[in-house]
Write a structure and sequence with these properties.
Methylamine Dehydrogenase, Chain H, five-stranded antiparallel β-sheet, mainly beta
């Protein structure tokens, strides 16, 4: 089935390029790191209209607390992680760390934020209640790009592009417990954990996605568009939406088997990050063009 736009792109206040996208489906909100503007973009997923932008610094990673709706941002060269109240549209907490932050993930059960050092060698663990750092996890590689949390075991999975591998972080010791080689991948970028299938999907810039078990056993791989930056997973349907180089793609995960490519579409606008709304099954893309920035909704069904 084709990937089709629900509506034309909706322009937002243009301050520069974007990074990660996150969707809070129950509250009908889309959040995007408006990195060059040093702001968190807030969009109403019901209308596609911009609701506001909160100044947080050179934001990269974005994660949502499903219980409260608070948004956590990882802020590049400002060396911190912030907690944002998206209703009041203001920063309500801040944790200082020792380096710039790229991707972040949130574990609602333990109320921990995990943030990887942009271009560095550690993952920061932060208490979301107090917004105080807990520990820094030393990594065997550097340049990490994406991480995910198993909601049952609370194990953290982090990719290491320079070594073509991903690692498991023990939530008790906050140290690396396992290293899994991904020799078929070049510059590992997207990483997602399917909590029902118990599978890790990780992809490289060379246009290959591989799926592993938590034990590190390869279940299979498939080819899809190159240069993908972010993939977003619908935990209900096990569908992955991925974006990179102005192209979005849709893949299906399967129990104990390789993923399958369902569809691709060229959307332009330097689209490289994407978020799935698990209520509607739609995907949200942020676009950077020469004369404007915009958001657009696509139907993956």
């Amino acid at each position: 089935m084709p990937i089709v736009p629900v509506a034309p792109p909706v322009a937002v206040h243009s301050y520069g390029g974007f990074d990660y996208v996150a969707v809070d489906a129950p509250r009908h909100r889309v959040y995007a790191a408006h990195t060059a503007s040093r702001r968190l973009l807030i969009v109403d997923s019901s209308t596609g209209e911009e609701l506001g932008q909160v100044e947080v610094g050179p934001v990269h990673g974005v994660a949502v607390d499903p219980a409260t709706g608070d948004v956590f941002t990882g802020d590049g060269t400002d060396d911190n992680v912030m907690k944002v109240d998206p209703v009041a549209q203001k920063v309500v907490g801040e944790a200082d760390v020792s380096g710039p932050v790229d991707a972040i993930a949130y574990d609602p059960s333990t109320r921990r934020i995990y943030a990887d050092e942009d271009g560095g060698t550690v993952v920061y663990a932060i208490d979301a209640t107090t917004m105080k750092p807990i520990d820094s996890v030393p990594l065997p590689g550097h340049g990490e790009e994406y991480l995910a949390v198993d909601p049952e075991t609370h194990v953290v999975y982090q990719n290491l592009p320079d070594l073509a591998e991903f690692i498991e972080i023990d939530p008790q010791t906050l140290r690396v417990a396992k290293v899994v080689k991904t020799p078929m991948l070049v510059k590992d970028h997207p990483l997602q954990y399917d909590a029902t299938l118990h599978e890790i999907a990780v992809a490289g810039k060379n246009g290959i996605m591989a799926v592993y078990t938590p034990a590190g056993r390869l279940l299979g791989q498939t080819s899809f568009p190159k240069d993908v930056d972010q993939c977003s997973l619908d935990q209900k349907t096990h569908v992955l939406a991925c974006a990179g180089g102005g192209v979005i793609s849709e893949l299906q995960l399967h129990p104990g088997a390789p993923p399958t490519l369902l569809a691709t579409a060229t959307v332009g606008g330097d689209a490289h990050t994407i978020g799935i709304d698990e209520t509607t099954g739609a995907a949200w893309v942020v676009l950077t063009e020469t004369d404007r920035d915009s958001v657009q909704q696509f139907n993956l069904k």
